[in-house]
Amino acid sequence: MDVLRLADALVRVSHMVQHVFADVSRDHGLTPQQTQLLCRLVRGPMGMGDLGRALHLERSSLTGLVDRIERRDLVLRLADPHDRRACRVALTEQGAQVADAAHGAVTGRLDLLLDGLDDAERERVSSAIVLILAGHTAATGVRWT
Amino acid sequence: MDVLRLADALVRVSHMVQHVFADVSRDHGLTPQQTQLLCRLVRGPMGMGDLGRALHLERSSLTGLVDRIERRDLVLRLADPHDRRACRVALTEQGAQVADAAHGAVTGRLDLLLDGLDDAERERVSSAIVLILAGHTAATGVRWT
DNA sequence: TATTGTTATACTCTATAACTATA
DNA sequence: TATAGTTATAGAGTATAACAATA
Questions:
Q1: Do A22 and B56 touch (CB under 8 A)?
Q2: Global confidence as pTM
Q3: What mean pLDDT value characterizes chain B?
Q4: Which nucleotides of D are covered by protein (CB under 7 A)?
Q5: Taking residues B94-112, what's their average pLDDT?
Q6: A79: exposed, middle or buried (C-beta count within 10 Å: 0-12, 13-18, 19+)?
Q7: What gap in Å lies between CA B107 and CA B48, rounded to an integer?
Q8: B104-119, pLDDT tens digit by residue?
Q9: Number of helical H runs and strand E runs in chain A
Q10: Higher-scoring residue by pLDDT: A142, A9
Q11: How far is the CA of B93 from the C1' of C14 (A)?
Q12: What is the mean pLDDT of residues B66-91?
């Protein structure tokens, strides 16, 4: 039971994080997909293409997702000055607040589960995960930052 | 960039695992939710209540999920001998094969990303994750095994 | 009365294919 | 011709509320 292949451990912790994510999203009146979208935009506006790659969605799926959340005034589509076909999706002020609150709630809940780890251990696990994510970026081109 | 709160690292690795999970599911003609359902049943049949708690789903949502995958002969509902209201969901032989193949593909792909970690490091990270999951189980009662 | 599971309904999420407008 | 994004459509996933049957 304590002997667990790392790949299996990653799958299980991922499902657990999904559950936390779903609970927090619901608390904030969002679907998990909407929360993910908002959190991706915290760093700044993104085009639909990049956003779709980041969220692993077909463009048409993303159109609908953005439509629904734009109707709620959490994001808006800006014209791209360099390409009149394209648009850039940006958080509204309210969207930024919601994104920040949801992100804080997720990490807050996860922190509660990290009681059993000391600082050195956290740093070690965190570093290992950064390595794993770097491998994924190298393989797929999708950045996790 | 290398300094990342562990909670954030967990969220990011979780999204990465979801993408792998989605790709593998598609390769096997399944949705991610169906794959998760099948993999949960590998240990043996489960009642709808337990299954719903494990997958974090309302009972009515689970009814539909099981309906659709039962139509494809990957699971079936068995009568519960001790409670005539209840049923137990079990993998068919074909369902067990699909579950096994999908699980192997997911862990196989993840293993490719773990090249940069030596055995000791893997063991350390795996143990830390087991601790985290144990905390989640203590808080919610949902087992991850 | 409480619990197990289903049904009815209304959304959201997602992909495929066809389309428009711009590059 | 190729690319960015949308529309149309169909199916899957999800929750809430109301229900049936059994405990």
A1: yes
A2: 0.95
A3: 95
A4: 3-9, 12-18, 21-23
A5: 98
A6: exposed
A7: 27
A8: 999 999 999 999 999 9
A9: 6, 3
A10: A9
A11: 29
A12: 98
Q: Are A95 and A75 in contact (CB under 8 A)?
A: yes
Chain A residue numbers touching B121 (CB-CB < 8 A) = 124, 128
Find the DSSP H helices in B29-118.
32-40, 48-55, 59-71, 93-112
- The model's confidence at residue B139, banded by pLDDT at 50, 70 and 90, is confident
Q: How close does chain B come to A81, measured CA to CA in Å? A: 30
pLDDT at A31 over 70: yes
Q: Which of the residues B8, B19, B110 would you substitute to probe the A interface, choosing the one with the greatest number of A C-beta atoms within 10 Å?
A: B110
Strands of the sheet containing A46-47, edge to edge, are A46-47, A87-91, A75-79
For range A33-41, the mean pLDDT: 98
- Residue among B11, B13, B145 minimizing CB distance to A10: B13
How many angstroms separate the CA atoms of B15 and A55, rounded? 9
3-class SS at B31? coil
Q: Which of A13, A125, A135 sits opposite B115 (nearest CB)?
A: A135
Instruction: For tokens 């393989």, name the residue.
Output: A139
